[in-house]
Fold each of these.
Amino acid sequence: MREDNKRSGCFYGVGVGPGDPELITLKAARLIERAKVVCYLVNIEGDSQSRTISQLHLVPGQVEMPIYMPMSEDATIGSAVYDEAAGAIKQQLKDGKDVVFLCEGDPLFFGSFAYLLTRIQDEYPCEVIPGIASPHGASAKLKKPLTMLKESYGVISGRHSDEEIRQALLTLDSLVIMKSGRARPKILRLLNETNRLHQANYLEYIGRENECIVEDVSTLAHEAGPYFSLFIVLRDERGRS
């Protein structure tokens, strides 16, 4: 921590939910509106989903710090981006400005905020404002519970190996497969091999204007989908009290 008496800013990871701006919490909205600096990830076109979700709460005069994150599997590139971003954020915090980092869904659920948190929390105060994660947004859209009674439940990434995904499908009653975009052909194949194709639901851009819900995934093309997509797999027979 800093040894001088000057107040440093606080770094906030603020979850803004899966896509519907009305799912932003009151606390998240208040912090966004009061922040001196607002930070968020952008893609190669300069677009930011988290900023779009939060735009009604951005106010004139705020400093915006977009962070370009290349879509690369190279961990070295990602680490360098986070190192540079953390350095810029620390300078704002050192100057006494609070920094809000906008996160789709929840900041600590597959969130990029976690990589910045590890680089900043030993030097400056940090707080996390939870948000509605995409599996819960998807469950609400489907009107189907993620888990009931003694059902097992798990979350796995489409980036896992074939065997890891297969084992999860064979073992767990309820399964959410995140980051399924590029892995969609592999996931469809594994769902078929484990006889769970008919139990799967597929969702894209939950809570947004271009939302897409497919409850019969056998109709899906075996090709890559968008980054913001997931599968929810649920058993046919579900316990009832």
Note: The longest helix spans residues 75-94.
Amino acid sequence: MKICAFCGSPGGNVEHIIAQWLIERMNAKDYPVVVGHRNAHSLKSRPAHGLKSYTTKAVCDECNNGWMSKLEVWFQHRMGMLVEPAWPKLACEILRLALPEKEMLAKWALKTVIMMDTNSMMENVVDGATARALYEGRIAEGLVVEVAQIHEKAVGGVLSHGFWVRNGGNSPQWQVHEGKMAFKAVIQLNHLAIRVFRAPGAHPSYYGPNGRLPLRCYPESQKPDDVDFRFHDLWEFDRVLELET
């Protein structure tokens, strides 16, 4: 039997990883979703399939209809306009109003990543302690959440244990944390992309094209008007992040 990824109780409750309200608001009922895993040399992904069949049973009824549901209500209320087919002209204003509640955004994003992780192609990327902390209302130390506006509309995500890492002045090399406490995930919902990552002992650095950078939302938040967070596609946004040790 599946167990709940958060509290460890018996699972079996069917959860849409991309919530049904999101599917409706994205106008993506028949849109194919692609989820993949990146390593040093390639990106492996499953064949695209419909969002309605993108589900998991690794959650219990109490979690699904309790604190997880409250996070969905918050995200729909504060961020819902950003997932619609057309990127809103008032996007910076929407973010400016949402970011004072940055902990809610971080919890929603991490919850969604963990649900993606339960229906993935490899061993879980997010460790159990991080998921348990979220269930207890805490955000794991060192978690970072960033957003971007993506020009090419799509729905999908990438999960990974690895990062491109610069050691001193050397060229970046692909590295995986020995204890697998580090992870990175990117979710794209139409033109909105959200990155969640945790990298103990490393410092994030960014090499964005033409000065474009992700908008940091958690643990500190930037002013949306101060950052050009536009990227061409998910892969450009993903690659802009490197670590320094």
Note: DSSP finds seven helices and 13 strands in the chain.
Amino acid sequence: MNVVGIIPARYASTRFEGKILANILGKPMIQHVWERAKQSKMLDDLIIACDDERVKKIAEDFGANVVLTSKDHESGSDRLTEIVQPLDVKIVINIQADEPLIHFTMLDSLARAILDEPSIAMATLIKKISNKEELNNPNVVKVVIDRNNFALLFSRASIPYLRDENVDQVYYKHLGIYAYTKDFLFTFKNLPESNLEKAEKLEQLRALESGYKIKTVETSIDTISVDTPEDLELVKKRLAEEQVA
């Protein structure tokens, strides 16, 4: 198969324990993510990779293809490799379990970026920042790109810094959804933790600091990553508004 989507679903969370099972308009958050990803035209399969029997049971109940993985993985990409190892697949898309507002077209555009340009090994989504408050929010990761839409740097800081305030600068934020070739996923997993990664706590910096390129794909769709109960309330409001519309 060409493309598989995997939703790494870790139950434990430092700031919001069990958030992936949080109720959103009558469904657990993980179900919203799965249902939206399932609409993708490019995915040949969609798998939830969880580390907790409670998540596995609930995912099975709503019809997902779900696999119980080790609790010892340090990152979502590590969890991906356990699932992907036996699969004959070209592209793997890492779909965050705390992104209940994800749209299937975001996944399709990432898949096409690699399928249309085989030299690309890793791709991710970005969006123009329209809310100035996001620039100084360390939970919103910023990205600077080159003229060919490859990432130059990711940071929690506001980058680039404007020495001259008269410059008309476009800022981009990073949406943490990735596509990899299967081969590069295992290369990436085995790269040493980089200095920038340690400083920023951003795993993708490991690839850049090791000399690999990350293609960025722009989307106009904004999402809300659920890191806190407050984020959850914002998602509930957005989804309720969508249902009314």
Note: The domain at 3-244 is CATH 3.90.550.10 (Spore Coat Polysaccharide Biosynthesis Protein SpsA; Chain A).
Amino acid sequence: MIGRLHGILISKQAPALMVDVGGVGYELEAPMSTFYDLPELGQSVTLHTHLVVREDAQLLYGFYREADRSLFRTLIKVNGVGPKLALTILSGMAADALVQCVADNDIPALVRLPGIGKKTAERLLIELRDRIGDVDVGGSTGLPAAELARAKAVIANHPVNDAVSALVALGYKPQEATCMVKAVESDDLASEEIIRQALKAAATR
């Protein structure tokens, strides 16, 4: 099991990134909460990782905070929730907000996330209620932290197109992702900031 990577960030285009560790490039996928805190390309980065081994692939997921990885591992234990949906949940809702959502039995908040219907939301709340106590989110600030710190650019060129592509990769339909991005005043904004504002707006609808 690969539990942690420390190396040079050589590419990032949400939700994918690559870290060079001793000349070996590790491809990972990460939630937007991690992308908000990534350094610029060429800088060193340390990520907590989770490896998923399938018959046809070995998939590595990276998280800036240990709490996010812990919650990811809790989410994929829920019946019907795979790694892709878990990343979508962590991209649209901070770890501490998800814990509060479970405590409040807030089904509408979960249904606003792509790929989650009422039945899935109900199952999430029921199964997470028994497991969420094992997740320490004290060090996780998620989206609120990104609002206090400046969002770092994922890619310098074509931020609007990159934002749409990232939202589609997170589970939104192309037309829906395009509408979400169009609703953001995106002039001079990096793609990560566009994504952050689009997700924030979607969460409050």
Note: The chain has three domains: 4-63, 67-143, 151-203.
